[in-house]
Design goal:
- By secondary structure, the chain is an alpha+beta fold.
- It folds into two domains: 42 residues; 100 residues, Sporulation related repeat (Alpha-Beta Plaits), CATH 3.30.70.1070.
- 42% of the residues lie in helices and 28% in strands.
- A five-stranded mixed beta barrel has the order 2-4-5-3-6.
- Strand 4 and strand 5 form a beta hairpin.
- It is rod-shaped and about 95 Å long.
- The N and C termini lie far apart (82 Å).
């Protein structure tokens, strides 16, 4: 009888030590998700050069028109005529470039279009003429920059 009591006590101790720890589980899960996302980022095409064939060309110039949603930045820095420095497929890379533009002194905004593309806006104006004048200056440092007209 005494022997059975010791075996039961030992068995109870073993079961008590087998409880799952939520912190360890969550930490491991986060590490695996981060690793998976890093692998996806490495394999993904991170930036996208916008093909000139989709631009509208008229007497006011060359531009792109899209419906956009503000992701990061101030609504004040997001108007009708916007100058886009770069476009991204990957949100993580877009956020990194957004931070870089803010650090460089641009009133940047990160936006997303209906095709799930991320655009980094570095200047925004109420008139096409102002946007075109600024684009001439910005194009020297950012040759891929273009004007994007926001559809409301």
């Amino acid at each position: 009888m005494k022997n059975n009591f010791y075996i039961l006590a030992l068995f109870t101790l073993l079961l008590a030590g087998c409880k799952s720890n939520p912190e360890v589980y969550n930490s491991t899960y986060r590490k695996l998700k981060d690793k998976e996302e890093a692998m996806m980022d490495a394999n993904a095409k991170t930036t996208m050069k916008v093909p000139k064939s989709i631009f509208t060309n008229d007497s006011t110039g060359s531009y792109l028109t899209e419906k956009l949603n503000l992701i990061l930045g101030n609504e004040v820095n997001f108007s009708t005529y916007n100058i886009v420095a770069r476009s991204f497929i990957n949100r993580t890379n877009a956020r990194g470039y957004y931070s870089q533009m803010v650090d460089n002194g641009f009133p940047a905004a990160l936006v997303q279009n209906e095709d799930m593309m991320y655009r980094i806006i570095i200047a925004s104006y109420l008139s096409m003429a102002d946007a075109q004048n600024r684009l001439k200056e910005i194009s020297k440092a950012y040759p891929e920059a273009y004007i994007l007209i926001r559809i409301h």
